[in-house]
Amino acid sequence: MTLKNKKIFLAASVVVPFLAYCFYYYGMMVKNAPYKFNEFQYMVFEYGNGDSLVNKFNSKTHNYQFIDGRDSLVKTTLKLNKDDLLYLHRKAADLGFWDFPAQEVNSAKRDPKVPYYVIEFNYMRKSKKVLFQSNYQGNEKLIDANQRLIKEIQRILSDAEQRNKK
Questions:
Q1: pLDDT for residue 63
Q2: Are 117 and 131 within 8 A, CB to CB?
Q3: How does pLDDT run across 149-158, given as a tens digit for each residue?
Q4: Fewer CB near the terminus (10 Å): N or C of the chain?
Q5: What H or E segment, with its residue span, contains residue 141?
Q6: What distance in Å separates the CA atoms of residue 161 and residue 36, rounded to the nearest whole number?
Q7: Quick check: 123 and 39 in contact, CB under 8 A?
Q8: Dist CA 149 CA 133 (whole Å)
Q9: Do the bridges between strand 127-133 and strand 115-123 make them parallel or antiparallel, or are there none, so unpaired?
Q10: Phi, psi (rounded to 5 degrees) for 103
Q11: Measured between alpha carbons, how far is 57 from 160 in angstroms, rounded to an integer?
């Protein structure tokens, strides 16, 4: 065998099995990913002070209730389109929502003056629900990611509300 053939044989016997293993391993990871949008069913978003999570949205039932500027409870239906839900799914994935702890609160007793948020994404095989206290004293990156996701959800709900008014 020539030196060139030895190098080709060595490369083929090391690189080809490695690449085959990588394709197999990562292919299975992507195939078995727990949070895939094609398995998405619905999301729930609730917020309010203390135990009274009066502001609620459920994308399955399209029920949307909130306190308006005049402190009156408004109940309406709000349908998010597939693009809105896909955007929220991807935003949650980008911000690492699937790795958030389920409880992000300072103490077990709820402070009635502090806003709390519940974000829940439900899929066919799995669901993820997070309770977030707005003055949570934890990891700064985690707090920032929660706040950004909450702002995006509120923005999407506001945009959908404006679309429905037209």
A1: 92
A2: yes
A3: 999 999 999 9
A4: C
A5: helix 140-165
A6: 26
A7: yes
A8: 14
A9: antiparallel
A10: -120, 120
A11: 12
